[in-house]
Structures are given as C-alpha cells and as structure tokens.
What we know:
The chain has 19 helices and 15 strands. It has 517 residues and is of the alpha+beta class.
Amino acid sequence: MPDQGPAYCDDLRALVRRLGKPPVEWQRRDLVELCISDGFRVLNLHFLALDGKLKELRVPINARAGLDRVLAAGERVSGSTFLPGLLSAGASDLYVVPVYRWAFLNPWAADEMDIVCRFADRTGAPCQLTPDNVLAAVTTRMRRNSGLALHGLAELEFYLITERMDERFRGLPQRNYHQGAPYLHCRAILDEILRVVSSVTGSVKYCHGETGYIDRLESEDPELDGRRAEQCEVEFELLPIEDLACWMAVARWLIRTIADRHNASATFAPKLDEGMAGSGMHLHLALFRDGRNVMLDAEREGGLSAEAENLIGGLLTHASELCAFGNAVAASYLRLVPNQSAPTSVCWGRHNRSSLVRVPLGFDIAGRVDQVFNPEERGDLPGDLSRQTVEFRGPDGCAFPHLLLAALAACVEDGLLGETSLGTVKGLHVEGDVSGQAELLSKLPKLPNSAAEAARALAEHRAFFEERAFPASLLDLVIAKLREEDDEGLAQKLRTMPADERLRHMRRLMHKDLHKQ
C-alpha cells in the first residue's frame, strides 16, 4: 500500500459516500456488492495508452460471478496496439488489472462504474515496460532508499475553445486571470468541470480562469479558426505520486468530455498563439515521513528542511533531461521564452514565478490570521495548516504524466542521496524577477531550446534513468519522439522569416498538437 501522507480530501467524493470508507480500504467485495445491490449494468475499465489518452473496455454486468472475475483478474488487451514501439505483435498480450482505490461513479450514467487499471504481463506481474509500472517501480525504490514518500499536486492549465455567440463582455489579451462571469464566457463549462472532477477524484483544490484570452483565433485548423479561447486551470490537492498520475489522466479525459458536451473543445497544448499565455503543467512536490510533511525546519536558516533543499538540488541538477519528459513537442519551446512567466534558465527562488523552481507560500503562519480579519472568531484552528511544497514550473500539457512524475521521483531521490545537491542549491538561488537581470541570466545554465536539444540531454544521461527502473526501450522511444519534432535551430529559423510567414509557421507548430496527451 502506498504511503498516503495526509488524509485524502474524500468527504465529497461520490463513491466514498456510497461505500462509507476511504479508498485505501476498498476491497473487491465492496465494489461487487454495490454494483449488484444498486443495479449497475456496466463496468468501464480504463487504462492509459502511449498516446496519453485513457482507453476503455466496457464490460456488461450480467451476474455477480462474472463481475467478481473481472475485478479479480482483469481482462486481456492487445498491448502492441496501445503501446507501439514497446511491445511487438508477436508478444502483444497484456492484462489490464483494476486498482480498487481508483474506482469512481460514472458522472453521466447512474448505472455505470468506472475503474482505472494497471498493466500486467502473462505471469500476472507488473509489466516492466509500461509507464504506470515504471512510475510504481521508481517511487518504491525512492521510498526504500530514502525513507521518504514523494507527494505532488498538479496545476492543469488548458484553453476552452468556444463559439463566439456575440460581442458582449469581450476580454483583453493576457488579462483573464481569475476572471468571473459574465467576462468569463466559459464559466458554465468550468463550473461543470469543477463539480465533476471534484466528485470523481475527491482531490480538487480549486479552479479558476487563467491569464490567457484570445478573442478570435486564427488557424488552419477548423476546430480553432474564428473561435474564442479562454484559459482555465484546475489544481489538485497533494496526493501520493502514483495516485496523482492516475487522476491527472482521468481529469484530462473528463475536461475534454465536458467541453465536448457543451459543443466546445479543450486543449492542453503548450501554446496557441504568439504573445499569448501558454499552458503549463506546474507540479508542486512535497516529502513525507510517516505521514508528516518534512519540507520545513524552523531551526535552519530560511526555514526549509535539508530534505527540501536536496529535493530542489535534484531537480536543478537534472533540469535539462527533465525537459525530455516535461516538454515533449516543438511548441513546448515556443512557451519557454522570456517574459511569459515560463522559465528559460536553471535557477530557484522563493515566491518567484520567473524561476524554474519556486518555493511558494506554505501557510506556516505563527499567529491566528483568521482572528486578524475576523476579530470575533473563537473556534479552534484545524490541524496543522502548514503544507509547504516546492513548485517545478517547466512542464506543459503535452507531458505524459506517469513518465514525467517517474523522472521527477528519480531526480528527487538523487538529490536526497547525492552529495552535491546543497552546493547546487546555493549556487543557483536567485532573488527577484530574473528576466530583467541580464548579467545574472548570462551566468545561469539554460534549459534546452528545442525538442532536439532535450533529446540530446536525455541521450547523454540515459544511464541515470536506466539505473532507476526506466527500460532502455522506453527511453529509446522518448528520444525518438523528440527527434521526430525536427526543430533543431527553430528559434534561429523563425528570426529569419518575414513576420507573416513566421506567424503562420508558428501557428502550424502550435496547433498540430491540439489533442496530444
């Protein structure tokens, strides 16, 4: 059983209410009894393919014995179809095995239950080639070697693409942050996203309008051309890394499905237009020991624990090769440009949104802030309010969550166990907005500026990941996909193009990955 850290935010999760106990306690018989007693007709098995999208196998529920068998042993699937490049047609068969704590009630069919599965090989063991099992192997290794569990939360940024119904309440570019109705035209869609994703996962922290607003898109893609684009964000609570990966995949499926039900589109593409906010997938990380957050130490200068600083050091040390997992397409590097709140240099800072790694506010306030603003408040405070994290701001929405989180866990382990992390942290700390400090920027290491450069970084350091449970064939595939982007020297090529031609070329790059991952 994975280290669960703090209690899940499960009070509102629909299936928790139905079963009357937390997900980590769910047994097969609990799911079977609920399905039979409440007349469920369909069990949807979900599993993640290499295209980053949830696939489904719809199983009719006709009898208790059949349901019990499926939940106990899973079903057979063609692995080479879903995992091309990893499995051949001659050795294709895999099992998809339900993970009971990842079950949920279907939001749109009252007689259907959904459950996310993992891949098993012909012996019933976890298939070592698949991203879900790579993540499990890396996190297990990290817990064993460090005595710490890695938890994370994700900020899922995306654009909702809607028809322009009229000219009222038009927004302004780069001014949509936390916008509300009627100026947020997609508010009804976002409201359904909040309610559904929260009910399914039990772990949504909040949602809001993000910075980006494009009143009328121009594109060669008819799904985009002439439509309005509004950027939004759904942010999770801290979860064990394996659970976070599962719910990120489910949430992206739910967001796209809800948008479609409103005759809209949702895209996690890293960039939609020049000069407009790109969509990142910022990840906040925290270390837990015996269920307690260990990111702070009041006795140390600056308040961060040695573990937290070592975590930062691991991320900074391996920043270039992490781009191979977090920034997977050419358009990713059109987002990682100066003055767009996206990092370009390897550095870290406190509360600093221009750095690659940021230490945000952690709610570690000594006094009673509630009484400062509500002087008549007399109730006891909730439990420990401190929930310090470290934010990694490089990745975007084209990242494959399981592989990215596995890579992050490997780098965090190296930071915790290595001998150079604290020196790296000291040397790469910055104050203030680094985008305006030319002299400082000239001294900082730079992130890759293309998928081709990220591929070289991963190829150079692949032994590091192979030693930490990444199969060689999977790394070959990641590197090959990056090279297929064929974006060597893209920035220089764009600078030499006439303005109109450059913009057309950039839009083709941006819009080709509209529904990647």
